[in-house]
Design brief:
Structural class: alpha+beta
Distance between the termini: 53 Å
Helix content: 25-40%
Oligomer: single chain
Bound molecules: zinc ion
Amino acid sequence: MFPEVPAGPLQIRISRSSPGRYALHEFAKNVYDVQITNGAGRALAASRPNLHQWDVEGHDGTVRVRYRIFGDRVDGTYLGIDASHAHINAPAALFWARGLDHRPARITFERPAGRSWNVATQLFPTADPLTFTAPTLQYLLDSPMEFGPGVIETFKAPMADGDASDAPTIRVALHHAGTSADVAPFVDGVRRIVEQARRVFGEYPAFENRTYTFLADYLPWASGDGMEHRNSTVISSRAALADSRIDLLGTVSHEFFHAWNVERIRPRTLEPFNFEDANVSGELWLAEGVTSYYDDLLMARGGLIELPALLSDLTGVVSYVMLSPATRFRSAEDMSRLAPFVDAASWIDRTNWPNTYISYYIHGATLGLGLDFAIREKTGSRKSLDDVMRVLWVRHGKPGGKEVGYVDNPYVAADVTAAIAEVSGDQMWAADLMKRHVQGHEVMDYRRLVGLAGLNLKPRFPGRATLGVQTEPSPGGLRISGPTRIGSAGYKAGLDQDDILKTVNGQAVGTGEQLDAVLRARKPGDTVKVTFFQRGQDVVADAVLDEDPRFDLVAAESVGGTLSDAQKSFRQSWLAGR
Ligand SMILES: [Zn+2]
């Protein structure tokens, strides 16, 4: 219900996008049976200027809207209502009205008959346990709600000085299909992550109501997701705590880091969030990617994963960036701006992403590692990326906003350069790093940088010859199952997606094993004759075989090396967070 509506038409909307998501999700598609009345209960006509809007005229200062909405997806974006709970992401569920952004809102839940459900949410509590308020529309739409039978575990956030009297409260609202024995080890992991995140920034954000809430749904009917909000996060998965605790904590780590980085250290491009369109930002390499760099690092610092697991995660991102041709075509900022095309967006036409795009999560996590190591090298390990995050926190996050749900001092790219300059003490150096590696196309020298911590990039398949194409068995041979990578042996030989590779050096290749056997007998640099079927034609071509370029990031001592004292202390301060 909208009371005290100003004279004239009221434009009622449902969102097209959701905070933390960058593409359009078009929540109007699930709305039906909309009935609009005035304060006296008389039906009001509404015109429909577009798919997301109802323009209501002739009201008496009160507009009441009743609607039904369908939702069957439990994650951080959509709506999932079933016999087990009501899992509500606000933009997917709530109508709102244009021009009333700065009004408070009130929400009251009604328990279904026979259910003793409770609500977990960052919305402001009231005396009635089923009624909540939000001071502004931005805060309301940023507030997911879990209405169900889950348990809520609570602890005081660990403080640097051990004095918990003014510590924020951390709530872990857990709706899961496991046993109560699964809960304590998970909550212990959450506590370790909370503490490690605070150590990066030096303090906790001033959470509204001094409370941060994890809304965890680990249910066989949930979809995997993690979605950050100002004072809460939705973390959902079909995996179970009993066998996937560490994986699930990885998402906890990512989302909690966002309580600083993106929720409060916020790029200007996302402030305020636009519920009427896609949200485009050139800074997602930092907001998302650097958050991804830290999620694993905090797990390691908190003793939840060991070095080999951390290095295996880093291998995934560093090798993707180093082996991708896409950095030639797009900078980290360009990749970030593509989010509305790739963030849970789907198309029926094909794209060439493997050649022209790298996820800002991957690209940004790799840059996080590179910037961290470069700053440590530059300052003799006296400073690190942690210090840059702190500078950004103090300048852009901590000052907060005059109104709840807003950030008054969001950052732009130049502010990131300024923070690196302050920490490194070298303005030219900072500007050069950003220009070459974030705004430009140059990949950082990861091979050299990781060496500072006694880490090596070790070839995974040394000396192994490859065509560098992905294939799958198909009638008549092997189908090329994705765009061929620019520069690879297969690409140079003219192979393309959907071609059927028939023979290599006269030998039929009907399975991956057969192709491997033929290539195993050859060396990188050898020329082989390939035949393939392409768009209705048989083609014969020569291919000069590549060496399999894949590698692993490993500790030098695990492959027979020894660390210098400098490498030992570099690695120690990186892993300890100094
Ligand atoms: Zn994220």
